Amino acid sequence: YDFVTNQTEGTYMFNLDGLIPKICPLAHELGEEERTTHLCSAGLQALSSLVWFMGEFSHISVEFDNVVSVVLENYGGLSKSSSAGVNQDNKIAAIDKELSPAEAETRIASWTKIVDDRGKAIVSVEDAKSPKFWSRVCLHNLAKLAKEA
């Protein structure tokens, strides 16, 4: 994350492309355990900086479809559950109650407000550990990338 956000040119572009297939499985970790959540958050944080990098240096990775897939899978916060008693409708209703669209809009600031001049993340501890937060940051960066293209 730090390495990517401190890039001032596209010299390492192809080296960074090679990281995406290794980061996507981290961001795809499923489960409710603390370790799994931290791995997923770290992977999504790294992907958010890579998506920012793609937009900043006008480069779309060949692994772009994997990035989009992982971001969208984590966006809603749905996870595979082994308990058969919880159905999909209950999960969706719980997510809808958790964060209203207006609240989500205010919680996802622009990349310049999330990252300081030195490339460090300026987010609360709660947000830094949240895969949902980082997937929303990724989605924000993807939207900005699409707008610039």
From TrEMBL:
- The highest taxon in the source lineage is Eukaryota
What is the protein name stated in its UniProt record?
Answer: Uncharacterized protein
Which species expresses this protein natively?
Noccaea caerulescens (Alpine penny-cress)
Which lineage do the record's taxonomy fields give for this organism?
Answer: Eukaryota, Viridiplantae, Streptophyta, Embryophyta, Tracheophyta
